[in-house]
Design a protein that fits this description.
The protein has about 290 residues and is an alpha+beta fold. The protein has helices at about 15-30, 50-65, 75-85, 95-100, 130-145, 240-255, 255-265; strands at about 5-10, 40, 45-50, 110, 115-120, 125, 150-155, 160, 175-180, 180-190, 195-200, 205-210, 210-215, 230-235, 275-280, 285, 290-294. The longest helix is centred in the N-terminal third of the chain and has 16 residues, at about 15-30.
Length: about 290
């Protein structure tokens, strides 16, 4: 998954490393079973047959897209490929961005049972914004089924905690949220059990060109990196894929509309909460009374 994975448990387990490696490999294989994290079309009207798991994930992504009015869009793959933030050092041209943006729009996708159809040649879906969140949940299922009662799965900062933490009387895990303006510092902690804690921030992957910073969280409507009022968003939700998508979506939506979007989404996922950190350092929260914060 192109990241460092860390597993923490509080009991001795023979063959633990092998078990973790097996669960990671299984999750990776499931996410890439139909051709990789990015599935692309090479002709108008092309159909890809998805596995049950991927079809379910795409269906959930459509819900998040609808509730955010397209500010989250799984079909952003052409823009992600064009910007290639991990390797590029120069932003793409405005004309190339417009061409790629014309291929983005979840409304141009259709999903019937397991058959995903792309309207246009060159469209694609990118599972990167939900893959690790989903994998965290699946890996925990595997650990529990092997008799491991509690622990932490950390997939490159995507945190999934499960069971009762034996180090705290109330069984909670205290998970720190990085200061996006100084990633060596923690702005606070959330006290959680059996859930996902996933953060998106402009500090994660970026390049600088001609005095401007270009980060990896793209706005599907403008075709450019999101340029809002947030430095990071942390989402807490028992559904890892949803938490992963929402952290991206809310970063693009911004603080002003963020609470309205969360109000809509909480009708489907009532345990969802969020911590917003603005570019000016202000911290605001949504629904965190469900948990505890310091």
């Amino acid at each position: 998954m192109d990241t460092v994975a860390t597993f923490t448990v509080y009991e001795k387990y023979d063959g633990f490393s092998s078990l973790c490696n097996s669960l990671l490999t299984s999750s990776e294989n499931t996410l890439t079973e139909c051709g990789g994290y990015v599935l692309s079309s090479f002709e108008d009207g092309q159909t890809v047959v998805l596995t049950d798991t991927l079809a379910d994930l795409v269906e959930r992504s459509f819900l998040i897209s609808e509730l955010t009015e397209g500010d989250y869009d799984i079909s952003v793959a052409p823009l992600v490929s064009l910007w290639n933030i991990k390797q590029n050092t120069v932003p793409p041209s405005a004309s190339d961005i417009e061409k790629a943006k014309a291929l983005v729009g979840y409304e141009m996708l259709s999903l019937e049972e397991n058959r995903l159809t792309f309207s246009l040649n060159g469209m694609g879906i990118d599972l990167g914004s939900l893959g690790k969140g989903w994998a965290g949940d699946e890996i925990v299922k595997g650990l529990v089924s092997n008799g491991i009662d509690c622990g932490i799965v950390d997939l490159g900062g995507n945190i999934r905690v499960f069971g009762n933490n034996p180090k705290n009387e109330d069984g909670t895990f205290h998970v720190g949220i990085k200061d996006p303006n100084d990633t060596s510092s923690i702005i606070g902690y959330v006290k959680v059990k059996n859930t996902n804690i996933i953060t998106s921030g402009a500090y994660e992957r970026f390049f600088e060109y001609d005095g401007t910073v270009y980060h990896h969280i793209l706005d599907p409507k403008t075709g450019y990196p999101s340029n809002g009022d947030l430095a990071s968003v942390t989402v807490i939700c028992s559904d890892g894929a949803v938490a992963d998508m929402l952290s991206t979506a809310l970063f693009v939506v911004g603080k002003e509309r963020g609470n309205d979007v969360l109000d809509k989404i909480s009708e489907y996922y009532p345990d969802v909460c969020a911590v917003f950190v603005s570019t000016d350092g202000e911290i605001t929260t949504y629904n965190t009374q469900l948990y505890g914060t310091d």
